[in-house]
Amino acid sequence: MLEKVQYGGWENAYRLYNEKIELIITGDVGPRIISFSYIDEINIFKEYQDQLGKTKGDKWLIYGGHRLWHAPEEKTRTYYPDREPVSIQEIEHGLVVTQRPEISTGIQKQIEITLALDAPEVYLTHRFVNHNLWAIETAIWTISVMSPGGMAILPLPPRGPHPENLVPTCTLSVWPYTELSDHRYTFGNEYIFINQNENSKTPQKLGVFTTTGWGAYLNQGYLFMKHVPVLLDGLYPDLGSNFEVFTNEEMLELEALGPIEKIPPKGQIEFKERWILYKEIPAISSEADFKNILENLSC
Question: Which of 22, 123, 287, 295 is deepest in the core (most CB within 10 A)?
C-alpha cells in the first residue's frame, strides 16, 4: 500500500508498506529511500538529522538512506546535488521514482520499488537513461547508508585445497586510505567482517568481487541482506568490485555495483536488487555463529 506523508521536514514523502515492513521515499529530493524498517520499529538506515527537509542548493548532501550513483567515482560528476523534486508514479505494489536529467552529466536516474505482499522483501530496479547525443560508459552504483553500531558481512567464494585449485576466485580492492590492519576488519576464511565504530574517525573502504551476489549488515538484532545479480564476464569498476563497504565514525555504507556498460543516446541500463530484512538475530562473534544464523533464517 502507498500513502503520501510528511517526513523529516519534507512535505512530499511516500510511505510504501505491506503487512510487515515500510519504506519512506522522498519526493522533494532524490531518488532516495530515507527509511526502511519493520512497521513502527527502528530505521535501519542512517539519517542525518541536520540535513532532513532541506531542498535546493548547489551543495551535495548525504541525507542518509539509500541512494543511486554512477561509477567510477569522480568528484565533479558523482556528487551531483540531487536536491530537486522527483516524479512519483504509482504502480502495482510499489512506485517508480524518477529524477530530472542531471545537467552536468545528461544521466537521468530512476528507481522502481515494489514490495512482497506478506514478507519483509523489497525488489528494486535501478535505471540510468542517457539523455546525451553521444554514448557514455558508466556503471550503476547503489549505496545504502546504514545506521551506526553494526557490522557488515561480505562473503568470500568457496575455499579449496592446493594444488587442485590454481586460479584465483576473488579480488580485493583497497584505497590509498585503506588500512588492512585496522581493528574494524576481521578477515575470516569464508567472510570479511567490517565493524562500524563511532570512536574510529579514520575512514576505511574495501571492495570485493563476490560470486555469491550478496552483502549484509547486522545491527541491533536486524539483518539487512542485499542480493544482486553477478555477471562473471562483466567489467566491474574499482579493479573489479561488485560489493564495497565504506565506513567512518558516523555510519557504514553497504554498496553494490553493476558492470560498466555503454549506454547509447536515449538508451538505458538497469540493475536489480532484492532486499530482505530479518529481525531478532543474535549478535555474532565468529564465522561459525554467522553460518548458523544463515542456516536458520526465517522471515
Answer: 22
